[in-house]
Records
---
Amino acid sequence: MQQSSKAKGIYLIYPLMLFLIVFFVYPLFLGLIRSFFDPHFTLIHYIHFFKVPIYVLVIINTFKIATTVTVFCLLLGYPFAYLLSSVSPKMSNRLMIIVLIPFWVSLLVRTYAWMVLLGREGVINSILIGLGLTTSPIKLIYNAIGVNIGMVHILLPYMILNLYSVMKGIDRNLLKASENLGANRLQTFFRVFFPLSLPGVAGGCLFVFIMAIGFFITPALLGGTRDIMISQLIESHVTTLLNWGFAFCASFILLAITLLILLIYNRFLGLDKLWGGV
Amino acid sequence: MRKRLALMILILAGFVFLGGTYCMAQEKKLVLLSWGGVWEEGIRKAFGDPFEKETGIKVLYTGPYDLGKLKAMVEAGRTEWDVGQPGMGWLVQAEYANLLEPIDYTVVKKDQLDPGSVHKYGAGGEYEAIAIGYRTAKYGKNPPKGWKDFWDTKAFPGPRCLPKRPDYTMEIALLADGVDPAKLYPLDIDRAFRSLDRIKPNVPVWWTVGTQSQSVLKDGEVDMVATYNGRIIDLKLKGVAADISWDQALYYQSAWCVFKGTPNKADAMRFIEFTNRPENQAIMSKHIFYGPTNPKAFNYIDKETAKFLPSYSENFKKCVKLDYDYWRPNREKVLEQMVQWLMK
C-alpha cells in the first residue's frame, strides 16, 4: 500500500525536474565545458584564477563577510525566533508579518534606503549630531559596517524562519519537566532548549551563509573598496570584459566550494534536517 | 457539441493571432537600444519621431545596455537589437568581441561629421565628458580647476568621489600628477597608482553607476566628484548647489553602431545618416547636454545651452581626449590591478 502511494506521487515531480534540467543543469554544464574548452582544451582560466592573487584574496574576503553576516543573523535572529515560537498562535501570526514584510520590498529599494540612513549627512548621523552625542559624522557606510547592516537586514528573515521551524517543534513540556526537577531558567535554557534547537541553528547558518557568498548588489552599493565579493568580479567578466571562459571558471570554483561545504555539513549533521525541521 | 464549438473558436483565434503577427512583422521597424530616461526622450524628439515621419519606419526602444546579452544574441544568431549609441569604451569592447557591423559610409555621409568621430564600427553620435562636479557651498568662491586641484586636499579639503573603473580614473590620476595631456598615452599605470595612493585616504566612496555619482554629491557624501558633464549639469538645473569645472575634462565619443547579425542593417544605416543631420543633433544636445559631432549643429543651438556642451569651442579646447585604442587590449589587466589596489 505504501509502495503504490509513493509511486503515484512521484510523477508530479517530473515536470519540475524537466524544467530544472533544461534551464538549469544543461546551461551549467555548457558553462563548465566552456571554462575548460575555449575553444580548445585549456587550463588557462583556472591557472589565471590562482596565479593572479586578487581572485583568491576576494574569495577569502567573501567568506569572511559571509561569516560575520551569518553570526550577526544568528545573534539577532535567535531571540526573536524564540519569542515567535513561545507566544500564542494569534500573537505569533502578527509577529510573523514583521518578519515577512521585508520580503515584499525590492532588495534594491532596501539597499538604497540604507544609503539614505547611513550616509555622512544621513538620518542617523543627523540625529546623533543633533542630539550632541557626536561632533563629526560616524562612518557607517562604504565600509564593513554598511555591508553587514545591509546584508543582515536582508538575510535575517531566512535565519528566523529556519530557527522558528525547529523551535516550534520543541516540546515545551520538556522545559516544564526540567524546572520541576530543580533547574533554574538559565540552566533549563542551556541544557534542554538550546541543544534541541541546534538543528535549526545549523540549518539557518548554512542557509544564510550560502546565500551570503553569492551576494552582489548590497556589497557593491554599501561596501567600501575592501568589501569586494567574488560575484562582483564574476559580473565584470561577464558583462564588461566578455571573458566568459574565465567567468564560468570562477563561478565553478565558487560552486565547488559551496558543494564542499554542503558535503561536510551533510557528513556531520545531515542535510535532511534542513527540510525536515526536527 | 460544446466541445466542437470550443475547438473551432480556438482554431479561429489561432489564425487571427498568426495573421496579426504576420501583419505586424511586415510593418517596417527599427529596434534602438536605449539608455532610457531623459536620454530616450531626447532621442525620440531629435531622431526617432522625425525619422519615422520621413521614412515610415517605426522606431522601437528597448534596453538596457548589456554587453553580455549582446554576445549571447550574436552567438545564437538571433540579434534583436538593430542600432545603439554606446560610449567608446563599450563600443571598443563590442568591436573586439566581433559583435558589430562596419558602418556603411556610402549611406552615412562622413563629410558632415567631425573627423575625430568617424570610425570603422562607429560614427557620429555625441561627445560626452568626465568633468569635476563640486558643491558650490564649499568651493563656490574658489572652484577647483583641473585634476591637480582635485588632488589638492590642502587648498580644497573634503571628501571626493572617483569612478570605480580603470578608464577615466587612470587618466585623471596621471593628469593630476602633472603628465602633459599630449603625452598621456600609452598610460604609465604604475605612475597612476602611485598618484592614486596620494588621494585614496580622501575618497570614501567610488561610484559605479551615473545616478550614484549624482546622489553622493547631492546628499553631501562628498564635496567633489569626477563624473559625466550631463549628470553634473542635470543636478545644477534641478536646483542643487553644484557646479561644473571644465578644465582638463576627459571627453570621449558616444558613437552610433549597428549590431552584428541584425536583419535591418540597411535601415539601421539610414537611421545613422539621419542622426548626423545638424538640426536634429541640435535638438538632442539641447535636451541632454552632450555635444554634437556635426559642427554645423551649433548653428542651431543657443549660446546659453552651448556652454553646457563638451564640443562647444570654449569647453572643447580645455578637454583631453580619452583614447580607447589603448584600453582595448589593456582593460582586463588594469581592472584586475585596480581591484587589488582598492582592496589594500
---
Amino acid sequence: MPDAASIKARIEAGIPGATAEVDDWTGGGDHFRATVVADAFNGLSRVAQHRLVYEIFGEEIGGPIHALSLTTQSP
Amino acid sequence: MTDPHDNPIRAAIADAISENEVILFMKGSPEAPACGFSARTVGILQSLDTRFAAVDVLPDPRIRQELSALSRWPTIPQLFVGGELVGGCDIVTEMFETGELAELLGAESTSERSEPAVADGATLQIENRLS
C-alpha cells in the first residue's frame, strides 16, 4: 500500500532537485495530493510537468494509486 | 508498438480528438458523472458555457488503455482542445481559476474552422467501432 511519505521520497528521487509535499487526501491510502517544486519544470507546459511526475509511477497510477492530484511549480 | 491501422479503438479515439474542437474523456456522462474528478471538470466546462463532446471511458476498459497510450496521460478525465491535451482535472481547475481556460476556449469557439461540437457524436463513433 503506497503512503504519502513513500510517494514524496519517490518524487524527490525521480526528479533531481525536486521538493514535494504529499498528503493522503482521503486517508484511504489511494488518493494522494502532491505539490512539487522543481527546476526541471522550468519552461515546460503544465502537461509536460505533470507527465514528469506521473512517469515515476507508471502503471501504479490508476492502479494502487487511484489518484494523484498534482500542483507543479518551478522555483 | 502497435500500428494504429491495426488498432481500431485507438484510431477511433484519435479521430474523435481531431474531429471535435473540445472533447472530454470522462467516467460517466456529463449528466451523470461517475467520478468526482470528472464531475468537477464537467462543471467547469458548463460554467463557461462550453459546448463539448464527451466520451465515457467506462463501458470498455480498452478505451482508457488506448487513450492513455495515445495521450501519454495516465488518469481520467482528459480534456482536449483543438486536438491538444490540455490536461486532467487539476490542470483544468488551475487554468479555470487563472482565466486561461476561458481564454483558450474563447479563442477556439471564435476560430473560423470551429464548428459546434455535437455531444455524444464521439461516443457513438467509438461504440460503433467496438462492436
